[in-house]
Amino acid sequence: MKNYITLSILFFSLQLFSQETIETKFAIPDGYEREIINEFHQWIINQPLKDDNKVFYSNGQEKINHDIWAAVFDYELGTHKYHQCADAAIYLNAMFKYENGYMNKLNYSFTNGDKTSYQDWLNGANYRLNPKNQNEVFKTFKSPREDNLNTFYTWLKKLWTWAGTLSLPYDTNEVEIFEMEPGDIFNQNGHAISVIDIIINKGNGKKKFMISQSYMIDPTMGDEQHILLNPSSGNVWYDLNDDIVFTPEWTMNPKIIRFKE
Questions:
Q1: Whole-model pTM?
Q2: Distance between CA 166 and CA 94 in Å, rounded?
């Protein structure tokens, strides 16, 4: 039995490490190179991607890939019903902080501006809507919770219940487009798209970036976060400039935001 368990763990580990990542899957164009800009950059380009490259909605339905994406992030909460566009951006930021021990920085806002923190959640915080005012969230404290991945996931799902594109401005600052870094977000007209990689041409200083999204087709349904193709080039790289950004399912002005430290 012990040998069986050991072999099972070994098989799972080998399977995990055999999965492709941004760093291993996508070729960097000639003349460009990747310079690691921050800790998040190093983390995100090493997150596992799904082997089957399929996107599923929270209801189990498969999304049809009409030249929309090139890869799909592989994580447990990807098909949760509240894992939608802004929630996917929050997930990347929060998961990076959790895995790297930045527990005191796990603070986010609901759409009404009220705050929630993972530390409060560990201390026993509970949240519920005021039945007489849907814009008011009551916070009470009960028994403390143990810090583990399941507890963290439960807090994230509670956060997603009342977070979205309207809550992101509370937790971010505007950034000049040419100062773009991995982790920045396009958040416009009800949709959010995350910047997940940047490369530079050292010869002329020009840059390209890669983006990902979860796309909400229904307020009660989310889908897995996928890395977008560039409709103009057919690959995953977008030129960094001050032009409008055309993605397969959305159009963004060259304006970005960044999570506060």
A1: 0.91
A2: 18
